[in-house]
Known about the structure:
The chain is mostly helical. Among the domains are: 13-62, no CATH class; 65-166. It has eight helices and three strands, in the order αααβαααββαα. It has helices spanning 12-20, 25-33, 41-60, 80-94, 103-112, 114-136, 169-177, 182-197; strands at residues 68-73, 139-147, 156-163. A three-stranded antiparallel β-sheet has the order 1-3-2, with helices on one face. It is extended and about 80 Å long. The two termini are 46 Å apart. Pfam families: Helitron_like_N (PF14214). Residues 10-160 form the Helitron helicase-like domain.
Amino acid sequence: MKxxxxxxxxxxxxxxxxxxxxxxxxxxxxxxxxxxxxxxxxYWSRREQELRALIQYQINAGKxxxxxxxxxxxxxxxxxxxxxxxxxxxxxxTGKIVDLNDKNILFSILQNNSHIVSHYFNLRTQEYFETxxxxxxxxxxxxxxxxFAKSRGMIHFHGLCWRSDxxxxxxxxxxxxxxxxEDVCASKLSEWAQQNFAMTAMHPAGSDASGNPNKDxxxxxxxxxxxxxxxxxLKSLF
Length: 238
């Protein structure tokens, strides 16, 4: 703890006595300084405040709400450049050349050098937003954060993106204001994506003769088809 100018010097006994008397001011100061410690609840509370401020600023500037939610996971077992980087790094560190075609060796190398994986994914993510989102999707402002979860790869991100023309938010806002139902709104959104990006909002399995989703061709949990074999699970990032 650092004493503030004007604070009286406190001994441990004084501090204990103040806490016993219900004085919570010291605890509040400690929690405040905890905002600089990454991973604490105070740290993420501060990040939330910054994001809310950014959203409010964008609204006040006339750019409206976010246009896209973007997310991606790190396919650390499938990125060829990451394999080459890991091989070179391991050679410099141990002087040994490893065969990363062996899944057990690959897993061990990646787990023992997670900082390399995270750094590579960070560079890839920066390039993704700068070249893909800005160029292809006309995004001019974006925000993202990293997370780590065992069930979703070593590292992944969630992000929000704004377009200067406020689309497709304006399109959906007008559709809902005119009383159009969800199916019509979805159709308009699909048309917009097709016209602007040659993309569709349809599932790759398509629809049956009645126009209903072909769920018998979807892997779980969305549909009823069996999951694809692991050998075909490419886990592609972008």
